[in-house]
């Protein structure tokens, strides 16, 4: 399978995870970690469900992949994630020594793979994964747009509490 087709294939799997997060009322971000054409881990954001600011899809996927492989170093692995990683996630991905990070939608407010800064490829870090952004960008972004539009609509429909 060509690399581009392979990237799209695994990003579609990450989109399935993101849809699960959306159904639970969490920010719809999904992640998949693949090594040698096999899935090591899948995850979706659980920040709302778990009440945990660190329960981002990327971090959860790294934890699962580390358990599955028995190693904290995830060399030879590619992470597919539907949204450009934030600073926390980018730091975790560097520390986990992932070979590649492939993401869907760019995050102009918090993205650390080129949008706000580029922590993943910072020249002073001891590990820098290969990075590719914009894979199935429209589909990935549409889930996020749907989620945040729904939240805005709910906040407009809710009358202020008198007090």
3D structure, described in words:
Helix content is 42%, strand content 18%. With 163 residues, the protein is an alpha/beta fold. The protein has a 5-stranded mixed beta sheet with strand order 2-1-3-4-5. Helix 1 (3-24) packs parallel to helix 5 (137-157). It is globular and about 45 Å long.
Mean pLDDT, all residues: 93
The separation of the N and C termini measures 61 Å
- Rg from alpha-carbon coordinates: 16 Å
- H/E element string? HEEHHEHEEH
Provide a count of the helices.
Answer: 5
* Share of helical residues: 40-55%
Biggest beta sheet summary: 5 strands, mixed
Poorly predicted runs are: none
Comma- or semicolon-separated keywords:
5 helices; alpha/beta; 163 residues; 18% strand; globular; single chain
Helix-strand layout with pairing:
Elements: H1 3-24, E1 30-35, E2 38-44, H2 47-50, H3 57-69, E3 77-83, H4 87-95, E4 100-105, E5 130-132, H5 137-157
Parallel strand pairs: 3-4, 4-5
Antiparallel strand pairs: 1-2, 1-3
